[in-house]
Design brief:
- This protein has about 240 residues and is an alpha/beta fold.
- It has a single domain, classed as Rossmann fold, CATH 3.40.50.1580.
- Helix content is about 25%, strand content about 25%.
- It has five helices and eleven strands.
- Strands 1, 2, 3, 4, 5, 6, 7, 8, 9, 10 and 11 form an eleven-stranded mixed beta sheet that branches.
- Strand 3 and strand 4 form a beta hairpin.
- The protein is globular and about 45 Å long.
- The termini are close together.
């Protein structure tokens, strides 16, 4: 059976319902991961869980050690990655509470360590990243969302910005012109690093606010937290359905 790893983002620093068997703080050649890798049973099967921003939530998106996180998960035995991301909605269909399983992404981040193939002892390697998300994992997430009967999109383009600040109205307008449907800060280099390690990877994105300029009101943390609280049970149910399938 495939060993899945779940990477929890904002609002999912703990996987409630995980029957914890081990809590492993693994060392990697790239430093310490964001948190200990939790190993246990969820959805009727063995699963690994890692809080992307640490536990408690303390690491900003541009400061996450993505290489250490992915390396630690593979070292712990992960064979596929389910990533949970809180995002802003750019496309009109992507309102608060909407789910999206993106099929493409555009990376606007900078200064992050984007590859394992760097350094004097490594060979420069160019991975094929035409389709950044695993097709089978995406279909599993889509099927689970359909069973939940919630509002979701089976396709979307994820625009990854640097953070930690939210975007300006002009920046969101640019992302929209570029074809982005949702915007977040942690989609890259996580997806590319998973590809370098040969780990199938897919993203379950929960829209927690309209992006800048997409509503008359300013974005508030209270709004984001309310959307996270309202959607987190569905996130957990979808993950459980994928794991049980």
């Amino acid at each position: 059976m495939t060993v899945y790893a779940i990477i929890g983002g904002t609002g999912l620093t703990q996987l409630e319902g995980l029957q914890l068997r081990a809590d492993e703080l693994l060392d990697t050649p790239y430093g310490a991961p964001s948190a200990a890798v939790q190993r246990g049973e969820y959805g009727g099967r063995e699963v690994l869980f890692l809080a992307r921003h640490g536990q408690p939530h303390r690491i900003a998106p541009h400061q996450v050690n993505y290489r250490a996180n992915l390396w630690a998960l593979q070292q712990a035995g992960a064979e596929a990655i389910l990533a949970v991301n809180a995002v802003g909605g750019v496309h009109p269909a992507m309102g608060s509470g909407h789910f999206c399983v993106p099929h493409q992404l555009i990376d606007y981040s900078w200064g992050r360590e984007h590859t394992f193939f760097a350094g004097e002892l490594e060979h420069v390697t160019h991975i094929d990243f035409s389709h950044p998300y695993d097709a089978d994992l995406r279909q599993r997430l889509i099927a689970a969302l359909a069973t939940e009967q919630c509002a979701y999109s089976s396709h979307g383009v994820y625009g990854c910005t640097q953070g930690p600040r939210l975007e300006t109205v002009a920046e969101i307008a640019r992302l929209e012109r570029d074809g982005c449907d949702i915007v977040g800060m942690t989609g890259m280099p996580e997806a590319a690093l998973a590809r370098e390690l040969g780990l199938p990877y897919a993203c379950l994105a929960l829209v927690v606010n309209p992006a800048a300029g997409k509503s008359a009101a300013l974005i508030s943390m209270a709004e984001i937290e309310a959307a996270l609280a309202a959607g987190i049970d569905t996130v957990k149910s979808v993950l459980a359905r994928v794991l049980a399938g």
